[in-house]
Amino acid sequence: MSDNRQSIIEFPLDFPIKVMGEQHPEFSATVLNVVQQHAPQTTEAQVTTKPSSKGNYLSATVTIRAENQEQLDNIYRALSSHPMVKVVL
């Protein structure tokens, strides 16, 4: 299968994915679990979290070792469709 799209990203590389959702005690673990389905080598040490100024939301940044564009697309799709996730950047 051939893909004619040209990527401006050179793989592999460390790639940060920022995910935002409502404050929940399992948010970062859930985000990590979703990411690990597509990037199994990702660990808890690669996740940083930060609450919003009012504490209603939480952002998690997961830095993965991206191997190709398809992997990134799959991670973005999986995170975007998860009910705990509001935004994926």
Description:
There is one protein chain. With 89 residues, the chain is of the alpha+beta class. Helix content is 25%, strand content 33%. It has two helices and four strands; from the N terminus they run βαββαβ. The protein has helices at 27-36, 69-80; strands at 13-22, 47-51, 57-66, 85-88. The chain has a four-stranded antiparallel beta sheet with strand order 2-3-1-4, with helices on one face. It is elongated, with a radius of gyration of 14 Å. The N and C termini lie far apart (28 Å).
* Unreliable runs: none
Order of helices and strands: EHEEHE
Let me know the largest β-sheet: 4 strands, antiparallel
The SS-based structural class is: alpha+beta
Strand content: 25-35%
Rg (C-alpha, Å): 14 Å
Mean pLDDT across the residues is: 93
Give the termini distance in whole angstroms. Answer: 28 Å
- The oligomerization state is single chain
Major sheet strand order: 2-3-1-4
Helices, by number, come to 2
- Give the % helix: 10-25%
> What gross morphology would you assign?
elongated
